[in-house]
Amino acid sequence: MVSFLGIEGGGTTWVVVIAQDSPENIMERAEFETKDPQSTLAAVREWFSTREYDAVGVATFGPVDACTGSSTYGYITATPKPGWRDTDVSRKNVVQQQQATLFHGHPISRLPRSNTKSYSPL
């Protein structure tokens, strides 16, 4: 059984889910008001820190720099959302505090890919 952590960052609400076997089979769901980056991302991290999962997907408002060679790769860049410009919303940043335990010490970029429908480079 494969568990998925889904994180969707919106301008007014961030939604986090745990799904099993298929990303569409949502078992748990929570919402957090979009405030400043520090408190919003801390609330998201706190929610999923007590859950187990095998794969992570992150989607967010933007624009987000998707150029892998860029120094701001994975960052929200020129957004009109106050306080969110130059915020790192990459999978690595969002789950960095849990990475060692949840992924057995493997860097996120080296996690095995399963055959889900799509992948984000972030």
The assembly state of the depicted protein chains is single chain
Number of strands: 6
CATH homologous superfamily caption of the domain at 3-61 and 89-109: ATPase, nucleotide binding domain
Q: Roughly how much helix do the residues carry, as a percent range? A: 10-25%
What is the name of the CATH class of the domain at 3-61 and 89-109? Alpha Beta
State which percent range the strand residues make up: 25-35%
Judging from the principal axes of the Cα atoms, what is the shape? globular
* Termini Cα gap: 24 Å
Give the number of helices: 3
Could you walk me through the main structural features you see in this protein, from its secondary elements to its overall organization?
- By secondary structure, the protein is an alpha+beta fold.
- The chain has a domain of 80 residues: Nucleotidyltransferase, domain 5.
- Helix content is 17%, strand content 27%.
- It contains three helices and six strands, in the order E-E-E-H-E-E-E-H-H.
- A four-stranded mixed β-sheet has the order 3-2-1-4, covered by helices on one side. Strands 5-6 form a two-stranded antiparallel sheet.
- The longest helix has 12 residues.
- The two termini are 24 Å apart.
- The C terminus is likely disordered.
Topology of helices and strands:
Elements: E1 3-9, E2 13-20, E3 26-33, H1 37-48, E4 55-60, E5 75-76, E6 87-88, H2 91-95, H3 99-102
Parallel strand pairs: 1-4
Antiparallel strand pairs: 1-2, 2-3, 5-6
List keywords for this structure.
single chain, 122 residues, alpha+beta, Nucleotidyltransferase, domain 5, 4-stranded mixed sheet, two-stranded antiparallel sheet, globular, disordered C terminus
